[in-house]
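FW: tagging you since you asked about this chain on Friday. Here's the raw sequence from the shared folder, copied in full. Didn't touch anything.
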Amino acid sequence: MKTIKKQRMAPALDRGLKVLELLAGEDSELSLKSIGERLGIPQPSLWRIVRVLRENGYLLFDPEKRTYRLGFKFLYLGNVLLRGMGFRSQARRFLKRLVELSGETAELSARIKDQLVLIDQVEGPEAVRLFSSVGSAYPYFHATAPGKVYLAHMSEKKLRDVMNRMGMPRITQYTIGSWEDLEKEMRLVRERGYAFDDQEMRMGVFRIAAPVYDHKEKVVACLGVAGPSFRINPEKVKKVGRWSIQLASGLSREVREQNSAVW
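HL: got it, structure written out here
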């Protein structure tokens, strides 16, 4: 009887994994109907699978749009994977060195679907310094340095699709608020090799970030600093920008050497 039960459960498990893989590969959320049509799963069976995934934190449901996306349970699992494979300890050397050079808090962030998540940080030595909880997310890419790095590496079509979906609200008086300004900023990010935001996400906060690449030249993380805006002048921006690029390049080399196994 146990063998028969396992055989009956296998299709449901297989379908559940296919649902997760589908959503992981999509830039947008999907409705139950879209998921069923793409995977060829009958609606009654799909509903039961989705319900179990929601109850266990693997899927999130938007009641207004009636759509699904991956849940934050994957962030927890990702953190476990990063700790287990030593990526954080590997990246921490670069974070500590960036703190030594800049005197500011160093941050390592990564994109998880439509969320920009802080995955590690090393606090700076100053009495007035920036601190954010590891695992916290920044919802808008256009208003923060790491988000700009990711946007700058997108094709024009994907950039428009992402921004149309996420929106471009003015969070502070300094936030980019037009498509023309965003395009100009993206050109500058590509030319400099790093991005910065000056009080665009939060008043009084300045961030600088440079891309970390894998063996396919895909941005897998951002390395940079966060500090109070009164302490970061134009000259310091250029210095920290260069240091961030150098250290992010060093981390990129190590990621490539490991054949991007962590990611």
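FW: The beta strands are 30-31, 59-62, 67-70, 105-112, 115-122, 137-138, 195-198, 205-213, 219-228.
HL: agreed, and Residues 1-8 have pLDDT under 50 and may be disordered.
FW: great, closing this out.
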